[in-house]
Amino acid sequence: MISAVAVGVLGTAAFAPSAPAIGGGGGGGASATDGVCNYYYEWLGVTRFPLQPDPHATYTYVMPSNQAAEDGVGFLLRGQYPHAVWTSWMAYTGKAQPFDVANFVNNPPANTNNPIVPDEGSINPMQDGQPMNGEPRNFTVLWKPSQYAGDIADTLDGTTTADIDALNLKNYPSPGDDNDEANFWALANRVYNAFPGYNPGGSTKSTFPVVTAVDLETGEPVDCQEYNVLPDALQAPPTDPPDRQNKTVLSERIILKNGQRFFSVGGLGTVIGGEDGVQYAPPNPGDIVQWTRPNLLPGADVATIPPAQNCAGYLGTRTDPRRVTLIRIPRVANFTSNNVLAGDTTSLYPNPFSPSQPWQAAYTSLNMYGTSLNTYIPTSPNTGSIAGSEYKIDASGGTTVMVWPRNLNRFQQEALFNYAKRRGWAIMRGGTQGIASSANMLYRVKASASDFQGRLSNVPCFFGTTANPENTDKTWIDVPTGKGSPYAAAPYNLGPYAPSSVACERNVGSFTTIVETVTGRCERKLAGWISATGGSYYNPAPPSS
Predict the structure, then answer these.
(1) What domain of life (predicted)?
(2) Exposure letters 205-228 (e unless 16+ CB within 10 A, then b)
(3) In a 10 Å sphere around its CB, with 0-12 CB exposed, 13-18 middle and 19+ buried, how is residue 337 labelled?
């Protein structure tokens, strides 16, 4: 799928010259000095097949050639922890396979994510009990070639090597790590749900992390741009990150300096147009809309190397482009709130949305994808993405989301919107489908507590584990659905945190689906489905009137 159908995902390069790059997304070819690497900033507020990033997140990366490893070049990552709820840096091979990861958020109580360690004298604002706006908040990570066996200088561009914690020493792929054909690798950063007052990457112009290329043996900086295969026109320095999301340009295909094609972060793991139905979710049984786990594809966002399971870390489903879809999550994961204003000294990590209840996850969202543009428009019924407080969580801790089809006229839309608003529902615009993709929704719960009942890995993976793969000749569309399917999210595997959904009546001139929705029949159908799978529409009890 994407972004390994992952969102936030890297795509696979096709190893042949092709047409010119589509669109932009970086800077204006600004040059870096003193070894500093320029970035490609893919900070998108729009999605469309094959790009499926989460619009509440930013994706930033540099792409060095294999020559860097051969020359003994390290990449020194230095900067401030972002003002955001979650972040990571990950090295991928040129075939978009995860190679090593620098986690920043832990997974209590197991605490197996092994997050990086802050610099001496700094705090980790993503550590339990630390002020989320705390200062200083600096970190240093060294990325070195996996097969490098030479000496490392005592200082690297002024940084004392001995001061870099062992947890902050990471590897990037060398030639021979199944990376020869691609001849490049990618260092990708993700930042989710930045605090108000900061750019979408959770920084300012002067605080976004910097990657510097250094000669590991001498410690001196070297020209990063000699290795960076990103087109000059797409590059911008770390001192010039965007102020806002890009909601107009989608760079679906980038032609690298070496002539290879790259489908960017959030991109498809196969060549565009190379296969029909590459991102089709399993068919739904009748009016029931079931959530399953797609197979793990290139560019996946993972916390461990290798990944524990051969499934994506999120749930997905297909929706009917001509019918209203109602989604109910009886209990939304108690996520880290990003409502941390500048000057706030009292908000301590993990800062759960419901302070009186245990924290359960760093982030959760619902996003619509498909073959047409979907745009993140906060507070608008036309939005294609919701997260955090946009869920409109009710007094019972749950949410109901109405997804409306695009074929409705203005009066029909208003009838639905008015009813949904009276019911306190969140509203999203539906997607479209085509030859390669159904109108898919993805549900993310990131960096969840290891003992959280709603942890999405509690939904069995149809494709097995890394150690014991299963159904290797199958794709996402082959995952079994239907009542009792062990591979579908339901109260019997996620408890009250399971998303349950139904499609309202089929459109007859777009009329029937509206009537069933505004008369409450569709919601009663949804409540009946939740009950039939062992759950309750409200958990623990209906909200007071």
Answers:
(1) Bacteria
(2) eebbbbbbbbbbeebebbbbbebb
(3) buried
